Amino acid sequence: MKKHALALALAACSLIGAAVQAATVTISPTPSSVLIGDTLSLDIKVSNLGTEIVSVFDLNVYFNPAMLEGVSYTLGAGLGGPWTDLSVVLADSFDLFAFSNLVVPGDPATDDDLAALQADGGFTLATLNFKAVGAGVSFVNFGLGDNERDIVGRDAQFLTVQYQGACVAANSPTGGNNACRTSIPEPSTYTLAGLALAGAFVPGALRRRRNNKA
């Protein structure tokens, strides 16, 4: 499994945190239709945050490289304030990992500072840019492994999140009938309950990736 550090610990031990607040993360639009050679953009949107914030997100978004090529990404303007972005584009996925430089775990005032800058209720986490390279249908879905769908909110606690992926149909400019006719295979709810992040998020946060699948 892929392993990497979300933060450096600045305390002697970590606090155990329960999953809090239900939110929704979706890839939009879905479905999409595109011709080979064209580009398209998909937004990763978070909603139903209520009074919560997004202080860290660690998301892997997978696609079929036979149909789609991951070109680039941008972080959403609604995140608010300065962020450290350690994301990369891989052959079959976007490995998105970023954290707010405003938030200091254990200091609720910094959570409030970030909340004041983030759009109420929800916003775009990132925009993914693709190029269609082959005919067919590709699901665009969040990974299920460790550190592949983590959203952290107030008090350095993981949020309970419902995820929804997308579907992209690619056809030749000379014709084709590929279309997103089936529902996107995505678990209805994915709940995370784990360690509260006791370390401060700093630009030098160590991050280890393993790109090869087990």
Task: Describe the model.
The protein is mainly β. It has a single domain (20-171), classed as Immunoglobulin-like. The protein has one helix spanning 108-117, and strands at residues 20-28, 32-35, 39-47, 56-62, 68-75, 83-85, 88-89, 93-100, 123-132, 136-142, 149-152, 159-164, 166-171. The strands form two sheets. Strands 2, 4, 6, 7, 8, 10, 11 and 13 form an eight-stranded mixed beta sheet that branches. It has a five-stranded mixed beta sheet with strand order 5-9-3-1-12, with no helix packed on it. The longest helix has 10 residues, at 108-117. The radius of gyration is 18 Å and the shape is elongated. It starts with 19 loop residues before the first strand and ends in a 43-residue tail after the last strand.
Portion of residues in beta strands equals 35-45%
How many separate domains make up the residues? Answer: 1
Gap between N and C termini: 7 Å
CATH architecture: Sandwich
Helix and strand string, N-terminal first? Answer: EEEEEEEEHEEEEE
Low-confidence stretches: 1-19, 187-214
The level-1 CATH class: Mainly Beta
Report the count of strand segments.
Answer: 13
Radius of gyration using CA atoms only: 18 Å
CATH topology: Immunoglobulin-like
Total helices: the number is: 1
